[in-house]
Write a structure and sequence with these properties.
- The protein has 306 residues and is α/β, with parallel strands linked by helices.
- It has helices at 11-26, 45-52, 74-85, 105-113, 124-137, 144-153, 158-168, 177-183, 188-201, 206-214, 220-239, 243-250, 257-265, 269-287, 293-305, and strands at 3-8, 33-38, 61-66, 92-95, 115-119.
- The radius of gyration is 25 Å and the shape is elongated.
- The model has no long low-confidence stretch (mean pLDDT 89).
Length: 306
């Protein structure tokens, strides 16, 4: 019997793994009916009906169900479903867009009777290593620096990387870092870093980078907070010389360390400390309504570059 539950803290990878398992199960049947059910907006009884209904046009059935735990009637639905699952004659894959608590009846039942696949959250280094393997499996020839650049521009988000990898197939190989820069937009977080870096090391780029940043249509206070985080990271990088400690403390990938330290060396420790203090004060003034948030952001940019 093929009954699987996919869940975890990394829903994008969990869903990808569930789809890969579906492809594996398909190979076991020459003739089958595939039933896709998104149970977030449909009664759980739909899944039960599919399990109990007869086949008319094929000899087998595969059921792929999603987001049962997001159903508004999940408590009653789960109580109805679990006993019937044991009697299912069809392969069933259930994907949950969250981690299922191990203390729940739902988890305990699956763990005792079927196969549970839990996907843990990845740190940034693990995301990079995973993506290297992923593009290799897709038969894509891509340079190491290009991988780092795309992961950074995707903000280490697996769903964004999976989506962006489809675009990679249309690019000439080997795919270079320059090709990534031309064809992929930067994430909000990455653009904030580019702004902070340009303010310190290359003020001539500040205007264009700030223009790109404002295209994200985010609240300026969020951008101020992100800049504040980058300033703190620079301060830590000035105080700690050991790259391994930096990676552990700041939770950054190895390839980002040299870039961070180089930027940190371009600004005096005392000035950086003053900027952090003034940014904290500016954040308070914006949140208390004394300064408009967009005005505050422009003041911060002028403050850092001055």
């Amino acid at each position: 019997m093929h009954i699987h539950l996919f869940h975890g803290e990394c829903d994008a990878l969990s869903l990808l793994n569930a789809k890969n398992k579906l492809e594996e199960i398909k190979e076991d049947f020459s003739d089958f009916e595939l039933v896709n059910l998104d149970l977030e907006g449909k009664p759980i009884e739909r899944l039960i009906n599919e399990m109990e209904s007869n086949l008319f046009f094929s000899s087998n059935k595969i059921i792929f169900a999603k987001r049962l735990l997001k159903n508004s009637d999940k408590a009653d639905g789960i109580n109805l479903l679990l006993p019937i699952l044991k009697e299912s004659a069809f392969p069933i894959i259930i994907f949950e867009e969250q981690k299922v608590p191990k203390t729940t009846k739902y988890y305990k039942f699956f763990n005792q009777n079927f196969i549970v696949h839990e996907q843990s959250k990845m740190n940034k280094s693990q995301v990079i290593n995973w993506f290297k393997d992923y593009v290799k499996a897709q038969n894509l020839t891509i340079e190491s620096q290009a991988i780092n650049e795309l992961v950074s521009r995707s903000n280490f988000d697996l769903q964004s990387l999976i989506t962006n990898s489809k675009k990679l197939k249309s690019l000439p190989t080997p795919i270079s870092k320059e090709s990534i820069e031309r064809n992929f937009n930067s994430s909000l977080e990455n653009t904030v870093w580019e702004l902070t870096e340009s303010l310190i090391t290359n003020p001539s780029k500040t205007k264009s980078t700030l223009k790109n940043l404002l295209k994200f249509d985010q609240e300026p206070i969020l951008i101020i907070n992100l800049i504040f985080r980058e300033l703190k990271n620079l301060y830590v990088a000035k105080k700690i010389s050991d790259p391994k400690k930096l990676i552990k403390i700041l939770k950054i990938p190895p390839f980002a360390v040299n870039k961070l330290k180089k930027s940190a060396q371009s600004i005096e420790t005392r000035k950086l400390g003053v900027l952090i203090e003034k940014t904290t004060n500016l954040d308070y003034e914006v949140k208390t309504g004394n300064i408009d948030s967009k005005t505050g952001l422009l003041m911060l940019v002028k403050l850092i570059s001055g």
